[in-house]
Amino acid sequence: MRNLLVTGGAGFIGANFVHYWMENYPDDRLVVLDALTYAGNLANLAAVQANPHFTFVQGNICDQALVESLLLQHEITTLVHFAAESHVDRSITGPDEFIETNILGTYALLKATKKIWIDTPVSQGQPALEHRFHHVSTDEVYGTLSATDPAFTEATAYAPNSPYSASKAASDHLVRAYHHTYGLAVTTSNCSNNYGPYHFPEKLIPLVIINILHNKPLPIYGDGMQIRDWLYVQDHAYGIDLVLNKGKVGETYNIGGNNEWANINIVQEICHLLEKAFAEDKTLAHKFPQALAAIHQKTETLITYVKDRPGHDRRYAIDATKTNNELGYIPRESFATGIAKTVQWYLANEAWWQAVMDGSYQDWLTQQYV
Ligand code: NAD
Ligand code: DAU
Which H or E run includes 78? Predict the structure, then answer.
């Protein structure tokens, strides 16, 4: 039995990881530490809140004393670190929080785990426990690719281009240094773009789904030919599971979907999927009367080219050969099944995204790029 501390567990990927873990390892105990920023949402954890093996703590990862007390109180053996400021556009308009949480927050977690797991002597008669600090990072630390460049491997040199990716790169380096210098048992995974349930609607896929339902423009930055490698979020959780159970301490593993799409093509695909959903389920026209699909008009007419993101990376692609070969990682969901599930989830969970949309992020969003 393990005791996990999951930072950022009320966010998109963290919450999906919590659901994955509690289903697959019901004997483990899991504590979520989350500051509940604009991106954190307790509704994402509603399904596990009554589980006696689950504890939620609202707090900041920069609070080293709080983290130390949680490590001791819950006898944490495994820390899985998702908490971050995650949106590239926000890092361009306001980098401070990214430096604070992504760099200083990770540093506080490293200091706390070193102090409790390494520096504090084990009481006499107690066995020394095995520990793990798993750091969740991104493919964006590797920079940008041209259309013909080979995909990023774990050996690709870091070349982050946005304040977000630079802050994640800095945190990756700190994690590496704490292993190399102090022997902290760390692993890191660098993953490509996730999609799926609970995805905050400032990000491309949920934004497009919800705007289609509201008959609002679908903003395409620049020429829309930027490429991302999309992975269903539960497959990210599965990859982290394999790294925790089979990965080598001190190593980095790339996790990706082998699924590259240009932004404009993915937006067109979502338009088609929603039109198909409306054609198959007549109740949707009553539920979402504003949608063009409700009146049999072409959804793609909502596509609107807008000013490009400054410093916009052209292409990301993950080469996950090492993770495939060493850990046996193969994503379980195809893009066709994953995106269909995602569209269905947003159609069935209007209450979730309406509540999120009522938050202040909408004001911020309308000031950007339109
Ligand atoms: P998210 O923005 O949806 O969630 C972040 C969570 O962290 C929120 O619940 C927020 O409240 C919490 N948080 C933020 N600052 C905090 C602080 N100082 N203390 C405690 N909690 C804090 O992010 P996400 O998309 O779920 O990403 C999770 C992690 O995965 C991040 O580290 C991100 O860099 C990484 N990642 C994301 C993707 C992706 O496609 N979204 C891909 C690869 C890697
Ligand atoms: O690659 C992994 C990264 O993926 C994670 O590390 C980040 O946390 C996560 O936010 C995501 O970053 P992106 O910038 O790739 O995701 P986003 O959904 O913001 O944008 C996807 C692409 O779509 C990107 O090329 C920008 C473009 N875009 C985005 C929005 C929100 C648009 O064209 N229009 C939009 O309105």
Answer: strand 78-81
Q: Is 319 a catalytic residue?
A: no
Residue 219 CB burial class (10 angstroms; 0-12, 13-18, ≥19)? buried
Is the Cβ–Cβ distance between 335 and 275 less than 8 Å?
no
| Nearest Cα residue to 69 out of 108, 98, 112 | 112
State the closest ligand 2 atom to the C-alpha of 309, by its place in the atom list counted from 1.
Answer: 26
- Beta-carbon contacts of residue 319 (< 8 Å; ≥ 6 apart): 150, 151, 152, 153, 254, 256
The pLDDT value given to residue 364: 55
Domains, the chain, in order of start with CATH, read 3-195+231-258+312-332 (3.40.50.720)
Supply angle C-alpha 217, 219, 225, rounded to 5.
Answer: 140
Atom of ligand 2 nearest to the CA of 226: 25
Report the alpha-carbon distance of residue 73 to residue 115 in Å, rounded.
14
For residue 267, give the amino acid letter.
V
Whole-number pLDDT of residue 122: 82
The DSSP letter of residue 89 is: H
Backbone angles phi, psi at 172, to 5 degrees: -60, -45
Average pLDDT by stretches of 10, the chain with 370 residues: 96 98 98 97 96 98 98 98 98 98 98 97 79 98 98 98 98 98 98 98 98 97 98 98 98 97 98 98 97 97 98 98 98 97 97 86 56
> Residues with Cβ within 6 A of ligand 2?
86-88, 138-140, 192-193, 203-204, 207, 219-221, 226, 228, 263, 309, 316
- Give the Cα separation of 250 and 293 in Å (integer): 51
pLDDT of residue 370: 45
